[in-house]
Amino acid sequence: MATDQAGIAQAPGALPIVGHLLPLLRDPLGFLNTLPAHGDLVQIRLGPQRALVVCRPELVQEVLLQDRTFDKGGPIIERVGNALGNGIASCPHSAHRRLRRSLQPAFSRTCLREYAAIMTEETDALTTGWSDGRTVDVGVEMYGLASSTIARTLFTDKAARPAVETVTLCLPDIFRGIYQQAVLPPLLRRLPLPPNLRYERARDRAWSAVSKTIGLYRKDGTSHGDVLSMLLDTRDEAGGSLSDSEIHAQIMTLLVAGIDTTAVALTWAVHLLCQHPGVQERLRAETVKVLGTRTATWDDLPRLDLARRVITETLRLYPPGWIFTRTTTTEARLAGAVIPPDTTLIYSPYLIHRDARSHSRPGSFDPDRWLPEHEQVRGALIPFGGGARKCIGDNYAMTLATLALATIVSRWRFTHGAPRPPHVEPRMTLTPHNVRVRVECLERASV
Ligand code: HEM
Hints:
By secondary structure, this protein is α+β, with helices and mostly antiparallel strands. It is built from 16 helices and 13 strands. It is globular. The protein starts with 8 loop residues before the first strand and ends in a 6-residue tail after the last strand. The model has no long low-confidence stretch (mean pLDDT 91).
């Protein structure tokens, strides 16, 4: 196995000039899964740039916990910053504490309880258009659910609806563009190629729609009790408020970070339940017992245990956020190697979740592995990252996914409606395409 002077393993198969660009564009998941066999810290090449992939849970934890040394940075974060502005997800450590504090109250337990009422309403609305025997495109349905729920959490005022529609339409091109642009060398990124132009157009449209909404809220001056009003009213320790561009970046970040991830998680969950009808029936028995014919609410959560484990296992097998980068701000030590400043590191929840050293039968769907009696490897489940930059919406996402899945399964039986398995497109999120499912209404049929 090839190692460099610092004892870091080199991933094999790098081509002159492009390095590992081709496998990263064609089959990034397969490529990532080959890396742990070469070492705990493996160097790959993205054109002329080099990056170290961190392949052990305990090393990923070290990186995540030392957020000053392993700061946000690297090609993905640069592209996220370019698309969204300098928001909480892409800002450096020096700006992070202030931005995180401004958003934290919006994700308190008290607020979550209120958002759960919106989740319940939107879940009810989701299936009103379904009919017995119809085939639905689960990805489209779940995207609709997540975008309407999250948009209503951010902006309750009706005046914001057109902006919400524009942004949700633009998001798929933004996600695809962020990943493509992150792996492309800078020269190719700047060429007027159709994917680059599509990305820029989508980013600019979403950007101006959010600006318009902030302008409307500022002009209106009343508090709407939503996240945007909270951000407009926020004051830091010195009494300063957030600027319009900071608020803009926060809102764009929440839309981008929250909608697709949650929709993708729910889509994979439905796909897995079709593949595993036995688990689907067990989940139905739980939900019918807890809910009867009601829609799931916040108070039901403690009793929707299997629903939660199904979501957790889905997030392990198909973590929506599958690749993230960091940059060293100073010389650092990791796995006994000395890493120079300005080195890009990559951590991948997908790689960690699929490693047989941490999860037995890593490719199998087994929600029961999350029963409390089973011991887990520390740091081996990281769908929401960790440390100071851990997902701020983790409880929001788990609540929405659990309530929605429980309600839907209690009323509908799913079977795969497409002959072929979904096509997986790793963009910013691990997106399944073509999850087409036949839905059978159980309010008329016997359960
Ligand atoms: C299943 C759904 C979700 C998954 C899998 C997910 C995953 C993640 C991950 C892995 C990170 C850390 C990224 C890193 O280490 O660089 C993150 C950060 C973040 N997520 Fe989520 N997320 C989800 C839902 C949400 C929702 C619903 C929201 C908000 C509405 C949200 C907002 C954020 C924000 C603002 C950050 C940046 C936090 C910071 O840097 O302080 N996410 N998410």
